[in-house]
Amino acid sequence: MNAQQHAYLEHYGDRVSFDPTERRLYGHDIAAIPALIAPLIGDTTPDAVVQPENERELADLARWATHERIALTPRGKATSGYGGVLPINHGIVIDFHHMRRVLAVDPQAMTVTVEPGITWERLDMQLREHELTLRLYPTSYPSSTVGGWLAQGGAGIGSYEFGYFRENVVAVRLVVPDGLICELTGDEVDLVSDAEGITGMISAVTLRVQPLAHVSVAALAAPTAKAFTALVQLLIAAKLPIWSMIFISPKMAELKSVAPLREHNGHAVEHRIELPHAYILTLAFRSADAAALYTCLLYTSPSPRD
């Protein structure tokens, strides 16, 4: 990056950084680059980090960077750990820290429109003010962003009922390299889902939500992989009103039983739960469905001999 380009970016004030240490931090995601891959990627330190405040600034920056032939790398919270936010061509990392607002809530349509930098936890807290909640969210709920999950793709908590995140996205606003802003709906959203920013930078996402309801949790244990498979197949066949389904292996259950408890100011903030050495299936469901679900489980659980 030359002196003229450097001077142009200075109009962002404290929302642009050329600090060597900070730039180095933005050259990594949450994971370490595997030793076999690192030499192939080389230095991933960006030339600058910019935090736009709104869609207009994002479009202006895209237009300027395209004219100057400077690479842009969009970045949410970099929690995926798969290298999707590494600026392998240096250039500028776009940090969406300031673009984290809820733009609109539609209780009738059961949708919400947000900026890409909002975290799932922050969005969920704001939805609760409208008696709404998320349909699904990633396991990195406290720290990952809406835009980041759409760019990365995948499934998460709640996907047993609602599918992949892509299936819950109604519309996307996308800033393309020449600074134009596109509104994507329907199958057009596939141009952005799982694309990790290569087709443009997400400036807003409209996603489906659901009414707020109390959620209950139950855990089932199976001694063998065969019994576990039979249990899951029975639950699916019974079409029980389950919102989310996750499982851990016997080894993971063993590790969880001996893992240190979370602490606050030197005091444990959770109780020790001794898990059986088994395949453990955790079900989450609306409390209103608990009676029907438990009744059905009594008649659909596989025999202990299986």
Radius of gyration: 23 Å
Q: What is the number of independent domains? A: 3
Distance between the termini: 65 Å
Biggest sheet layout: 6 strands, antiparallel
- In N-to-C order, the SSE pattern is HEHHEHEEEEHEHHEEEEHEHEEEH
Tell me the number of strands: 15
Give the helix/strand class. alpha+beta
Which CATH class of the largest domain is shown?
Alpha Beta
How does the SSE layout of this entry go?
Elements lengths: L2 H7 L6 E2 L2 H6 L12 H4 L6 E3 L4 H14 L3 E4 L16 E4 L6 E5 L4 E4 L5 H9 L3 E3 L11 H7 L6 H4 L6 E7 L5 E5 L15 E11 L3 E8 L2 H14 L5 E5 L1 H9 L4 E2 L2 E2 L10 E8 L3 H11 L6
Parallel strand pairs: 2-4, 3-4
Antiparallel strand pairs: 1-2, 5-6, 6-10, 7-10, 8-9, 8-10, 11-15, 12-15, 13-14
